[in-house]
Amino acid sequence: MVNADAATISIRIARLSDLEQIVEVESSSFERPYPPALILSMLYLHGDMFYVATGDHEVLGYVVGAREGRYGHVLSIAVKPKWRRKGIGVALMKRLLEEFKSSLLEGARLEVAVSNYAAIALYESLGFKKLGVKKRYYPWGEDAYVMFKRL
Description:
By secondary structure, the protein is of the alpha+beta class.
């Protein structure tokens, strides 16, 4: 549970019935959002590591991860703009990292746009370190930092 502006926020596994609201979170969060079909694929392929933050019967944010060998990979995280900086992103990441750890994974990795300073600060606050740069990682040509945290 997270307390954000007197609202009680819960973290739970995402459901297919959440898809429309997850797509809404995604589209309100990014200039180039993932298409709904990709989000649906992640829900089916990685549903055991796909979490939503809810409050007042509304999806406020989500995070999804995947097992890759001995490591967890944070595939995506987003929080509705008006709910940012209230601890929801931290709570979502902590829940996913707990799942990685309970699955006996040794570490977690992610990619983040080099210009996404808020996300980089969030990941660093959780103990992630920059390992390197993937040049032109994103379709629009932007580089990404590869970040890692040992569990």
